[in-house]
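Kindly review both lines to help learners:
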Amino acid sequence: MDEEILNEVTEDSEFSYEDPTINQNNEETSNEDPAINQDDEEISNEDSVIDQNNEEISNKVTQNSGFSYEYPVIDQNNEEILNPDLDLGYLRKEVFTVHHPSVPEEWHYKIVSFDFSNGEIYVPESEDDPHIRVIDAKKGIFEYINLDGEEVHIVTGQTITSVVDQQAIPAYDEQTIFYRYVLFTEKELADREFMANGPAKLAEAQETIEDLLLMLAELVGGEEEEV
């Protein structure tokens, strides 16, 4: 089964675009420059990256009320969901394949006409004609029935033709593409929480340590002056 995991691309990962990023003035920009939309407004990483054709070019699948997915979204119980929570899980592209075996051609013979000994030819109106007795339609064996009250006819020959009941169908595979909604594990959720809030908390802790060191330096300096 073909699988494609839709990952988020954040500035915290060591990521570089394969092709250079070009602004509206056809100038190359780096990842250090702010992203600007067509109204010259800065956009954050929460927004989708859009090219000149208004098509999303990042791998990030954002969650918003007006977004519709290209394929159905199926959960682990194979039930369709319309608004998956991408804070709790991710989407994985999957392909479900159903194999349909070949179907052989089906056919039978039918009577076109009976030839009589007196030179007459009888053409049945349909395959249900009461003058026809089917012995083996697959082998083309039929019998003419002389009905009560009719002149007795002696059959000297018959013309038959084949009728196709079912055209042959070659074997084929039918594929259904969908997104599988996979919940993050507890460890993955913890890692995501750390990546989202860890740098900010680390910066706060660094400031707190620097404040404590400064306070300690002032205390030590004050004691030396008193001595």
Remarks:
- The mean pLDDT is 75.
